Each structure stands twice: as C-alpha cells, then as structure tokens.
Amino acid sequence: MLMRVTLAPAAGVGLPSALRSMPCMDPRNALQSALAAGDSLRARQLLADAGPDGREALWSVLASAASGGSTSGRELLLEQLSASGVVHRFVASRLLDEASVDDVVQETLISVANSVDSFRGGAAVTTWVASIAHRRVVDHLRRRREAVQLPADVASPGARLSSQVATREALDGALRELPPPYREVVVLREVRGLSYAEIADHLERPLGTVKAQVARGRALAAHALHEGQVHR
Q1: pTM: predicted TM-score of the whole model, two decimal places
Q2: Which among 63, 157, 76, 78 has a CA at the least distance from the CA of 119?
Q3: Is 78 helix (H, G, I), strand (E, B) or coil?
Q4: pLDDT tens-digit series, residues 30-66
Q5: What are the structural domain ranges in the chain?
Q6: Is the confidence at residue 157, as pLDDT, over 50?
Q7: Are the C-beta atoms of residues 126 and 86 closer than 8 Å to each other?
Q8: Which class is domain 27-146?
Q9: Mean pLDDT confidence for 140-168
Q10: How many Cα atoms sit within 13 Å of 18 on the Cβ side?
Q11: What's the whole-number mean pLDDT along residues 68-95?
Q12: C-beta neighbour count of 139 within 10 angstroms
C-alpha cells in the first residue's frame, strides 16, 4: 500500500509577496488612519493596546489631530486625560480639599479643549497639560478671598498663603504641627469650609474665640510653610 505524505509549505510560501513583506503599521500611523476614517472604536483599541508606556506618543497624535480640527481627536484626548488620572494627580498634589481638586480638574480639561488648537507638538502632551493645570491652580488660589496672611516679619502685608502653590504634603505637615486648639479650627475653616458660626457651634466655643484662633492658626501655618517649622 502506498502512503501519501503531504508536506506543509514553508512559512510564507504560497502567500502573496505583498503580504509577506508588509511591515506592522506603526501605532501612531494606525491611530492617524483611524482618526481620519472616523473610526473611534479602532482608535480606542489602539490607545488601550499602547498602555501607559506608549500612550504619550499616541496622545501627541490625538492633540495634533485635534489642533487640526478633528472632533474625534479632541474628544479622545479629553477622555484619555480624564481616565488616566494625570490631571487629577497633578492638581491633587497642589490643593488640599477634594472638592477644589475636582473643580480645578474640570477647569483644566475645559482649558485643554479650548486651547488645543494652539498645540504644536513642541513639548510632550503631559508637559503641555501640566502647564495649563498649574495656571488653573494658581487662578483658583487667587480667587480664594479668605487666605492665610503671613506674619509681618515674614512677608509683606499683602502676602497670602493661598498665593503659595504649596504641596499637599507640606501643608498637611504644617497643619499637623499646629497646637490642637488652632489645628481644629483651621482645618474646619480652611479644609472643610465651615463658617465661623458653624465652627463655634460645633466646638462649643465663643464666636470671638474661634475667630481669634483661626487667625492665629493661619499665621502659624503660614509661618511653618515659610520656615519649615511652627513656632509655638
């Protein structure tokens, strides 16, 4: 009995030469093609496949496309910045209360959407976005009417704690070092946003005492940020 043996063709044999020689498309080019075709599903898949290590290059593609008028590029860029937490982490490292952080994050994303037309790729997208976030943080602090004034021997009469873009760690450290009576009232006033009357009611202290302790606590916290320690 004769046995028929069928040999498998060598790799690539029988395939069209164009397919055998076709290189894998660069993710950036693939994303550009997806955006040009209006294929948001494909674009999202490419962004997901890139992971944290490859996203910066693809974000640059999104920003460049958005600056050229691509609605999909703009929407996907904002979606990526929001979902990745990049903006939130930057803002949270500079502001204390979460409500303010959320507000400034939203303001930053709005500013990115409004100014992306000016993106020219001279810097990484994260660097460009961080510069916008920094300006929004400064604007937020400037808008705050009740700010901690530094003692006269530390700064000019008009100097304010809110004008210092202090890190969360530094300010938390300053608050932790305050004597308890001052720490309580400053946290309730500056972090939780309670009114003087609400603080007085909550702590069962006279209103005048609360106002005096808030003023003193603010001064101590500001001095601590300037000197690196609280002088009791």
Answers
A1: 0.56
A2: 63
A3: helix
A4: 999 999 999 999 999 999 998 888 899 999 999 999 9
A5: 27-146, 178-231
A6: no
A7: yes
A8: mainly alpha
A9: 49
A10: 0
A11: 89
A12: 12
Residue type, 227: E
Q: Do domains 27-146 and 178-231 have the same CATH topology?
A: no
Longest Cα pair distance anywhere in the chain, in angstroms?
111
H or E stretch including 21? none
Confirm if 109 and 155 have CB atoms less than 8 A apart: no
- Distance, in Å, from the CA atom of 144 to the CA atom of 164, rounded to the nearest integer, reads 12
pLDDT in tens, 172-196: 777 888 888 888 888 888 777 788 8
Question: For residue 31, which phi and psi values (nearest 5 degrees)?
Answer: -70, -40
- Which whole number is the average pLDDT over 202-206? 87
| 160 φ, ψ (degrees, to nearest 5) | -130, 145
User: In this structure, are residues 219 and 148 in contact, taking their beta carbons and an 8 Å threshold?
Assistant: yes
Secondary structure in 3-state letters for 40-75: HHHHHHHHHHHHHHHHHHHHHHHHHHHHCCCHHHHH
Confidence of residue 228 (pLDDT cuts 50, 70, 90): low
Structure tokens at 192: 């939780």
Fold of 178-231: Arc Repressor Mutant, subunit A (1.10.10)
